[in-house]
Inverse folding.
């Protein structure tokens, strides 16, 4: 059975590019347009991996990560941030919230697939 991945980004083009990359590698992918929509999905479905943007309306990525980490079923799920934010302070906030890793946009599809494969082992 293929792993279920959730992609969270307010940019339709980024969601589409990431979704195509991951589906092409055989993953089952769902998308959400902001952190609140993603959190609602995660309350009814279990995902093996969550990739989230940081800057989004309704709920940002770090708040989403904190919310997911508070749920026992998501305590060990890899949560990766994919964002334009490259500053060390923001990365530290992500790590403190429970992010598994941090990637900076624009993303390299090959690198994304490597990261996903590595954290899903």
């Amino acid at each position: 059975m293929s792993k279920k991945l959730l992609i969270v980004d307010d940019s339709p083009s980024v969601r589409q590019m990431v979704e195509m990359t991951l589906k092409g590698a055989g993953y089952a992918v769902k998308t959400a347009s902001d952190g609140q929509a993603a959190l609602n999905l995660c309350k009814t479905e279990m995902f093996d991996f969550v990739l989230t943007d940081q800057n989004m309306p309704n709920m940002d990525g770090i708040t989403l990560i904190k919310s997911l980490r508070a749920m026992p079923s998501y305590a060990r799920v890899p949560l990766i941030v994919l964002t334009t934010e490259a500053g060390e302070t923001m990365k530290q906030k992500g790590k403190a919230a429970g992010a598994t890793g941090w990637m900076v946009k624009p993303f390299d599809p090959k690198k994304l697939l490597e990261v996903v494969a590595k954290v899903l082992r």
User: Anything to note?
Assistant: Residues 4-120 form a domain with the Rossmann fold fold (CATH 3.40.50.2300). The CA atoms of residues 10 and 74 lie 22 Å apart. The beta strands are 4-8, 28-32, 49-52, 79-83, 101-104.
